[in-house]
Protein 1
Amino acid sequence: AQSVSQHNHHVILSEAASLELGCNYSYGGTVNLFWYVQYPGQHLQLLLKYFSGDPLVKGIKGFEAEFIKSKFSFNLRKPSVQWSDTAEYFCAAAVGRTSYDKVIFGPGTSLSVIP
Amino acid sequence: EAQVTQNPRYLITVTGKKLTVTCSQNMNHEYMSWYRQDPGLGLRQIYYSMNVEVTDKGDVPEGYKVSRKEKRNFPLILESPSPNQTSLYFCASSARLAGIVEQYFGPGTRLTVT
């Protein structure tokens, strides 16, 4: 079955620490991959996306992610987190036989950044 | 301003009473989708639509109906709501190339079924 898993349910970091959130997907075909962020009380916003090409993609707010096809992974990274990065982070995969329209989200990782 | 709107934002209803949650986007997007968000489960796709009159089931379509008669609107219909449909619902839209490009999410509708 198609699925997206995220390694951590809740991560707590101090400001300026480095961040890496793990994401793995289970799907045999081509996928488009996304990371979304949900700040408290707000709706989801796109951080970055990967369709093809360079497996290292850069997004907004200093986030980046690396697609490793052999590991079915798309991990999110940020070298130095800020208190304002406190949020819920969702990895998602768009899959399909002829077009990538069905979207599968991971369960989310809650990030708390301590000042 | 580019946006996805949902109405109502909050709804408390009783089991079996039909309801509709509206969703509208002003970006001329082909793709629209409905999700429910539950603690520990993330977002799960209910239905999606690739264009007018074209819809398909997501992972959790049971108990829900949708229609796409106009490009801008994608209402979610619960014919006979049950307590297990209590959840936070998000509508989203996206332009499409070979598939979705980037989804823009609405503000959410918190539904409670008693």
Protein 2
Amino acid sequence: GAVVSQHPSWVICKSGTSVKIECRSLDFQATTMFWYRQFPKQSLMLMATSNEGSKATYEQGVEKDKFLINHASLTLSTLTVTSAHPEDSSFYICSASDGNYGYTFGSGTRLTVV
Amino acid sequence: RKEVEQDPGPFNVPEGATVAFNCTYSNSASQSFFWYRQDCRKEPKLLMSVYSSGNEDGRFTAQLNRASQYISLLIRDSKLSDSATYLCVVSKDGQNFVFGPGTRLSVLP
């Protein structure tokens, strides 16, 4: 089946710094990847749709200048949380599809901003 | 009204019990339906897709009622390892997913 690798698994950073999260499709090409955020005891909320070679599409309420998405190749999308604040602490997950196995999620990144 | 709604639970059931979850969705244009399982602090994993005719996979049975806009998941002979949060997922285009809040299940020895 399709494998999506996401790292880091967890990161602690100071307020005001930026954090980059990588999402890779290991054995397939993904023209579209999705980024989600999940706060404790809540469901996954779609943040943005990452399109290879073009700008990401952000959901309402998600600041595109704060959550920078780059999908420079068919196997890699990155999410950069800029000028992180404690309220950005959350579980960030990416997903992608190879068209055959449905949507596979990365293992997620637990971000803690202190 | 939220687009996808679920009873958050928790459902606490003894091993061997049968338990059922329902999920309602508001968008009548929804075309694809899934149940995902999410363990604590892990990513969601696809449990099963839900087809119009209903489908079964071992101890798990999923059904779709388009008229009433709900889907269900039935788990028979619950195991301790079934303890998790079950997420109802709906999509109108097969790409953009809307997740329900999840129903937490605890299977007790």
